[in-house]
Amino acid sequence: MYHYEECGLSNVWLHDGYKIEEDELYGELVSISSVNDLHKTIGLYLINEKPELNGEDIRFLRKELNLSQKNLAGLIGVNESSVRNWETDRGDVSKPADRFLRALYKEHVHGGGELKAMVEKLNHQERNHASKSVSFSYNHNKSWKHKECDAR
Questions:
Q1: Which of 4, 54, 97, 135: CA 20 to 30 A from 91?
Q2: What is the pLDDT of residue 140?
């Protein structure tokens, strides 16, 4: 078995799917089959099977999402220092933040992007002044639609 610490997790072991070779210049070289699929499988295990995520798990998921600590913090709605503390096991992740991270990763793996796009839009809306009234119109294809206008 191979102890796969290169992924950033200390508890991952591979039974097969790897090859170890000796190189005169560099020593032991490890080749792993389908690393992207392996990482996806590890991530899905973390979000679906682990009741509590530790710091290594959170860092692994964040890196697989290709997000900085600052960007993940912005999506979740916490300070960057909170993410840093979670990743170093110096702070507890709230249940909503834990669930959001799991949902974000699941969406990342299965495609779509609607959740991330919605949260980014909501975060942007908080910075903009919302109008006091909203209007809707019923259009020719018999559906309602938000209409941009100054309703009084």
A1: 4
A2: 84
